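Consider a protein example.
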Amino acid sequence: MSTTATYTVTGMTCGHCVSSVTEEIGKLPGVSEVAVDLVPEGASAVTVTSAAPLAEPAVREAVDEAGYELAGSTA
């Protein structure tokens, strides 16, 4: 059974931003899908499907590695 969570990410402005965040979160163990609803210059929604719930610090680190900021999450 998979789980889905949506994270709010700030600082994303373009398709390259989407690719960077998708790539870094996609490297986390168990992640099967990453979908980004880009809001340029605003808070973008990043929906992640994974085999088990992800630890928020791991997601925060992946987003930081991509160069953006995790502003929040909802399960």
The chain has one domain: 3-74. The helical segments are 15-26, 56-66. The longest helix spans residues 15-26.
